[in-house]
């Protein structure tokens, strides 16, 4: 029931005076007054609406037209060429060159049969697509083409029993379950009996079916000029297909550093949500490994945007509405010519090892060179052997392959002993075999007699490090007595080693790096092994960071493969700088690290570091060798193999080079071979380095 909105006002009016109550009410006057007020309100409302309509029609017309077009139209985005990668001297190591592709976008209202005809015709003219269908996809083709005994398509229903077919028709079993039963019963011979035209065209047809609403599908990449010309001349016969300009990667240095540069591929299932959130179409090409993946945001550029419309013949046309921009160029700190030279050295060493029966398990070798002050990686070389015995570059092994390091960790062990008060400077231990309860013997390679910490590093004394470990563990050595140690010392030692970069991520700019194996067993004897690098495993990149930390006086610097990113063909326009970063600094109030540095220097200058001794004077090289036992079983037989390693830096004061070399399983049996890193590899590598960086050699002199 409608309520009088003026009722309260009427009552108030009547209460003002008793005379009002005595006068007759002029109802016409009251009604007219109220109609005028209501009309005025309605007029104001309609005025507001009219003003808004006029505003929309004239002032905001263009804006809303754009919004309507954006909502109603289809847009296609496409990737632009990726940025180029350069080495430290501006040489192209990953180039982007133009290629011509054939893409497909369906015409309006095209039927499935018409697409099959197109796929068959296209395949006959241009060849099979490189896409390889899965086993399940081949079985689905059989179901698509399947016919019954009368020649009618039956979607593979003849593969079901009568009872199963009846259950499927009644909905007693789901269509998914029925399809699984069918596919399980399809044999390879059934697929082989399908018409050849359909089998050959099937990969192309699958790609045509995978076209999204807003994205063409590339059917053939990097097509020839002849194929481009033919399609252009016979466009009416291949409706929906067109030639588009694309790009591809080219590597002027072939496989050199290729695994570090990375690969490009389609978006993987586990990464779909990430790239969708960034606006990538799911069939886009992205970096899937290495620097291509790590620097995807810089290399990929911005995308082209085209509007999709259909002409009167139902053919899709594409009009560019937003031009894309090529990705930024990357410059690396790596010298590609030096990288090639080191690859060649490692390849030659491994090739020669094949003729040495005591090096038969020597299958790979690694070298990392970096600047200990700012982390620039000069080179990161690795060579591996495949199952057929062929050698190939494996530079990514410098951060993915971990091995027990051996005695090169002794520099960190000495620092830890000094810092924790287990020893003091010039503390002397007698290097002689140590015997424990049960007859267990622990010794150095030789009996070196009395040594201080400098001599222990110079001659690589195991016994000196065993004494440090025993002191750290709160124990006392008693000949043939029990070894009682505080096993929490494992944690203490790992904490100290991590300060040098051992056992933790180095921070090198790649999407994935290994940190090595951490020994889980905690026995007192293993604590002694840990002190000489015979327990946990480390990568060559971690060892290079360790060498850098020793070299520069205690700063753990992040290794940097990439220097920065620039505008296309414009080295003056820096858009991203991979700045030098100190990750941590040793707590070294008493300058204890200098004792480790001096031990490294003494090892080289007195002839205890193999072939690098010859470089002691011209380049002031300081280094430490390492050998680590690596027993393993082969066909039930125990193989006593060992790794060789070497770390170091140069020159001694203000060093500008730190290096690490690892030669896994480079010796086996009791006939121990010379350290391949210190004798065969690093003397040649260091000479090559100073050939490419003569100014650094001069500063060493």
UniProtKB/TrEMBL annotation:
It comes from the Bacteria. Its main location: membrane. InterPro entries: Beta-lactam/transpept, Beta-lactam/transpept-like, PBP_dimer, PBP_dimer_sf, PCN-bd_Tpept. It is found in: Cell membrane; Membrane. Residues 80-316 form the Penicillin-binding protein dimerisation domain. The keyword tRNA-binding does not apply. GO terms for molecular function: penicillin binding; peptidoglycan L,D-transpeptidase activity. The chain crosses the membrane at residues 35-54. The keyword Membrane applies. It is a single-pass membrane protein. Gene3D superfamilies: DD-peptidase/beta-lactamase superfamily, Penicillin-binding protein 2a (Domain 2), Penicillin-binding protein, N-terminal non-catalytic domain, head sub-domain. GO terms for cellular component: plasma membrane. Residues 366-682 form the Penicillin-binding protein transpeptidase domain. GO terms for biological process: cell wall organization; peptidoglycan biosynthetic process; regulation of cell shape. Belongs to the transpeptidase family. This is Penicillin-binding protein 2. It comes from Copranaerobaculum intestinale.
């Amino acid at each position: 029931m409608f309520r009088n909105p003026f009722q309260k006002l009427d009552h108030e009016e009547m209460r003002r005076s008793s005379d009002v109550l005595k006068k007759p009410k002029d109802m016409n006057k009251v009604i007219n007054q109220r109609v005028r007020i209501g009309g005025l309100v309605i007029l104001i409302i309609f005025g507001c609406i009219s003003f808004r309509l006029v505003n929309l029609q004239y002032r905001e017309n263009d804006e809303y037209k754009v919004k309507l077009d954006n909502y109603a139209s289809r847009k296609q985005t496409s990737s632009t060429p990726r940025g180029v990668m350069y080495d430290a001297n501006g040489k192209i190591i990953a180039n982007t060159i133009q290629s011509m592709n054939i893409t497909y976008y369906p015409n309006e209202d095209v039927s499935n049969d018409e697409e099959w005809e197109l796929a068959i015709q296209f395949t006959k003219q241009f060849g099979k697509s490189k896409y390889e269908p899965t086993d399940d996809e081949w079985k689905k083709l059989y179901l698509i083409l399947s016919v019954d005994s009368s020649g009618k398509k039956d979607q593979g229903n003849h593969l079901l029993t009568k009872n199963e077919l009846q259950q499927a028709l009644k909905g007693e079993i789901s269509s998914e379950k029925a399809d699984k039963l069918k596919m399980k019963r399809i044999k390879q011979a059934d697929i082989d009996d399908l018409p050849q035209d359909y089998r050959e065209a099937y990969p192309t047809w699958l790609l045509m079916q995978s076209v999204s609403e807003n994205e063409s599908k590339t059917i053939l990449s990097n097509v020839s000029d002849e194929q481009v010309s033919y399609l252009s001349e016979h466009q009416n016969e291949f409706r929906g297909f067109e030639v588009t300009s694309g790009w591809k990667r080219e590597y002027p240095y072939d496989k050199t550093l290729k695994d570090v540069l990375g690969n490009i591929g389609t978006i993987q299932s586990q990464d779909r949500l990430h790239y969708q959130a960034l606006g990538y179409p799911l069939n886009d090409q992205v970096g899937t490994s290495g620097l291509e993946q790590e620097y995807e945001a810089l290399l990929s550029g911005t995308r082209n945007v085209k509007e999709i419309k259909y002409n009167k013949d139902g053919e899709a046309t594409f009009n560019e509405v937003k031009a894309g921009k090529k990705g930024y160029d990357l410059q690396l700190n790596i010298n590609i010519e030096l990288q090639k030279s080191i690859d060649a050295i490692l390849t030659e060493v491994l090739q020669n090892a094949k003729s040495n029966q005591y090096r038969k398990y020597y299958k790979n070798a690694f070298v990392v060179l970096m600047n200990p002050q700012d982390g620039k990686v000069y080179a990161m070389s690795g060579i591996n052997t495949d199952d057929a015995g062929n050698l190939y570059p494996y530079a990514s092994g410098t951060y993915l392959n971990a091995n027990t390091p051996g005695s090169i960790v002794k520099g960190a062990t000495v620092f830890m002993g000094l810092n924790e008060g287990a020893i003091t400077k010039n503390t002397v231990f007698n290097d002689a075999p140590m015997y424990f309860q049960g007859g267990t013997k622990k010794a150095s390679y030789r009996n070196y007699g009395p040594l201080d910490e400098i001599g222990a590093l110079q001659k690589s004394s195991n016994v000196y490090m065993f004494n440090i470990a025993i002191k750290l563990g709160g124990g006392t050595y008693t000949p043939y007595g029990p070894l009682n140690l505080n096993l929490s010392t494992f944690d203490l030692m790992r904490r100290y080693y991590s300060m040098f970069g051992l056992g933790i991520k180095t921070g090198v700019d790649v999407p994935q790096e290994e940190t090595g194996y951490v020994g889980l067993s905690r026995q007192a004897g293993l604590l002694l092994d840990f002190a000489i690098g015979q327990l946990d495993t480390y990568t060559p990149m971690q060892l290079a960071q360790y060498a850098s930390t020793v070299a520069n006086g205690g700063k753990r610097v992040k290794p940097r493969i990439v220097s920065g990113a620039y505008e296309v063909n414009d080295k003056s326009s820096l858009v991203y700088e991979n700045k030098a970063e100190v990750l941590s600094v040793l707590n070294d109030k008493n300058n204890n690290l200098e004792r480790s540095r001096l031990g490294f220097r003494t090892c080289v200058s007195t002839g205890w570091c193999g072939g690098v001794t010859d470089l002691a004077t011209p380049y002031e090289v300081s280094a430490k060798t390492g050998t680590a036992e690596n027993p393993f079983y082969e066909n039930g037989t125990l193989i006593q193999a060992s790794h060789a390693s070497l770390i170091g830096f140069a020159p001694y004061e203000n060093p500008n080079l730190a290096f690490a070399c690892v030669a896994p399983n480079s010796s086996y049996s009791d006939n121990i071979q010379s350290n391949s890193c210190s004798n065969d590899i690093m003397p040649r590598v260091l000479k090559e380095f100073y050939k490419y960086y003569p100014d650094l050699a001069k500063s060493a002199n």
